[in-house]
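Homework help board

Subject: predicted structure for assignment chain

Our instructor gave us this sequence and asked us to write out the predicted structure in token form, then describe one feature. I got the tokens but I'm not sure how to describe them. Can anyone check?
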Amino acid sequence: MENDTYKTLAAPGEETLFKEKNSKFFGYAYPVTSEDEIKIILEDLRKQHHSARHWCYAFQLGTDKIYYRANDDGEPNNSAGMPIYGQIQSFGVTNVLVVSVRYFGGVKLGVGGLITAYKTSAQMALEASEIIEKTIDVHYTLKFGYQNMNKVMRVIKEKNLDIVSQKMEMDCEIVISTRKKNAPMVLEAFTNLYEIVIK
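My token output:
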């Protein structure tokens, strides 16, 4: 049986601080659903920490198709973004952005030191966040005439479906949502009803 849940953050986590040889690493974790959202968060952090040296981050979006990016923001190749992304993977979360903002303290940490520092900063940020499990949902649009309203509502109630939106004009259109593993059963329930279109 295919998994139909995923883990993500309930809300942005608390700011964390990791110090290493006078360098400061401020860690942040956010639940995100789009790259536009990520851009806005990064812009805000750059304003908030305008005197920092590096704003390194990694994000992962998606449940079926995974899309991720890791950014070293001027640190040596793969010394920041990938260690941060590694923590996103080890916590098993998605739709998440983790940022580590570095203030340089005058002492070079070396690549090994940087990898450890960014990894620790990302780990602390995720530990300071509440991780929740969500279901992967499938949406269906139902189209039907008013005379079938009771039939449709009965199935929605029986199957405990969420109504996402509804339009009542000449005909009725209701968008419902169900967790992925129940989707085939829901599709079948409505497909068997006469005069109701589901897609």
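Reply (TA_rk): Your tokens look well-formed. For the description, you could write something like this. The first helix runs from residue 35 to 48. That's the kind of observation they're looking for.
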